[in-house]
Protein: N-acetyltransferase domain-containing protein
Organism: Trichodelitschia bisporula
Amino acid sequence: PQPTTTYRPRRPLPSNVTLAPIAPSTLTSFRRLNSVILPVPYSERFYAEILSDPVVASLSAVALWADTPASKPRVVAGIRCRLLAPVADAAPSLYVATIATLSPFRGHGIASALLHRVIAHAAREYGVTTVSAHVWEGNVEVWEWYSVLGFTKAVFEEEYYKKLRPGGAWVLERPVRVTD
């Protein structure tokens, strides 16, 4: 059974958190974040596109956390998305390729803020009307997080993740909403 989706108003980010585009100075930290949190590796091309492809760059961001106003902020979360080509006469869709938050920084609304930022930009600049992501079948925590944000299970893909056991993944989808 799918969890019931309830409306939760977005809360403001902590004042010491800044959302920013991924830059050459934060790319290495974003890559490290993904390698620590996510169970599959991503290619050098995956990361290089963030700096070389203006569309991918506009759909990618990091969250920077500063312990004090004088301290150097560090990357604690990040998102990288891309556009999926439209089918027939439909609008393009936003695809969440990766989204991750270091565990000590979860529960502050950082990942939700990153996702909202990218969805709003993609809707405004590229006319996207839907958002989708693959979620490994064994990751109940992530599925529940997406569910609270209004995503539903659309399609199950057997053996999507070749190096994970089990290897299936759910494609989760939701429409872009006015509140985005």
User: Anything to note?
Assistant: DSSP finds five helices and seven strands in the chain.
